[in-house]
Amino acid sequence: MKKLELVFHQCDVGKKGYLSREDLKIAVVMLCGYKPSKSETNILMENGTNKECPGVPLEQFVPLMGRKMSSEDPYEKTRQIFTAFDVHCRGFLKMDDFKSAFKRVAPRLPERTVLEAFRHADQDSDGHLSFKDFENVISYGLANTAALQEPQNNSFGFFSVENTYN
């Protein structure tokens, strides 16, 4: 629950006390590792808002995301993300695949950050990310998210929430 509260506070741009639609998308990326579709975001907003609040308040966010996260298999989710990135169905990702995927899911993320992520994930420096390499970097990002202590620290592994807003 502490992790969900931390993510909520990190994503509550302007400290409004609730997450807007855009804030909620970033929270899903931080917690689940993927950008939610429009229909998924609509469902989350419908299930998380009440009449007194224009967005998803903390007291709705925690149980909403808790249910969502408990129903997902982390290995399967990582496999789905890898498959979505592997548009050429090669079974590995090249730097261009990685950059292209991040342009779609995080268009404002600096290219330098994407390059660093690729280099970090490419353990054997062969220019290819296998699923195992990819799984390791996703696990690294999730472990760092769980280790965060301060709400003002807006990092997700080596990705920054604030980069998505700039």
From TrEMBL:
| Classification via InterPro entries | EF-hand-dom_pair, EF_Hand_1_Ca_BS, EF_hand_dom, Myosin_RLC
Name of a matching Pfam family: EF-hand_7
Extract the SUPFAM superfamilies matched here.
EF-hand
Q: Where is the signal peptide?
A: none
Which keywords annotate this record? Calcium, Metal-binding, Repeat
- Where does the EF-hand domain lie? 1-34, 109-144
Query: Which GO molecular function annotations are given, in alphabetical order?
Result: calcium ion binding
Give the highest taxon in the source lineage: Eukaryota
Q: What is this protein called?
A: EF-hand domain-containing protein
Species: Phoxinus phoxinus
